Each structure stands twice: as structure tokens, then as C-alpha cells.
Amino acid sequence: MENSAGLGMLAVCAVSGSVALITLQAQKRLLSNFMKKIEFELQGFGSSEKHETRKKVRFAEDVIEPSSNNREYRRSKCQAKAAEISDMPMNRQVLYRGLVQHRMYRACNAS
């Protein structure tokens, strides 16, 4: 009886050890495949010299280049838009003025 219990215990240890080793090897293989994929993706983002071409920006000829002081340029543009407001109905003029003032307030406080 003792002999069969010992053989049973030996079989259980052998099977569980084999399962543990197979699981460990599978985990290592999956982890290495995952790491290779991650490295490939990161390498693809880092080596942009192959796929990235520099785009040239072309502006229309009627675009006015602002002076060195951008605030003056913005004010002149806002004054030009204010002249367009007079064609609107009164309720829209009030709403539009409020929007413009809020944007100017945000622009002044952001810089």
C-alpha cells in the first residue's frame, strides 16, 4: 500500500512539474513575440525618414503677411469685421459682439 501511494505521489509530482515547465516555456515564447511586435511598432514610429516627406506650405497670393506686432494685425482684422456687423439684425449684432469680446478677452489673457 505504501508502495502504490509513493508511486502515485511520484506521478503527481512528475505531471505537475511537466505542466509547470510547459506553461513557463509557452509564456516565454508569447512574451518574446509580444516584445518583438512592440519593438517593431516603436521602431516604425522612430524611423520616419523612410515614409515622411516634408510638405511645402504655399500661401495664396492675396494673404497679407502680418507685421511683427500680431496684436495690431488682429485689431485691424477685428475692426474690419465690426464694419460687417452693421448689416445684421440687432439681436445678432449683440450676440456677435459678445462672442468677439469673449474671444478677444481669452486671447489677451492667454498670452
Question: How is this fold's topology laid out?
Answer:
Blueprint: H1 2-46, H2 70-85, H3 90-110
What are the salient characteristics of this protein?
2 domains; mainly alpha; 111 residues
Notes on the structure:
The chain has 111 residues and is an all-alpha fold. It folds into two domains: 1-47; 70-110. It has helices at residues 2-46, 70-85, 90-110. The longest helix has 45 residues, at 2-46.
Short note summarizing the structure:
The chain has 111 residues and is an all-alpha fold.
Percentage beta strand = under 5%
Give a short account of the largest sheet: none
**Which shape, going by the Cα principal axes?**
elongated
Ends distance: 89 Å
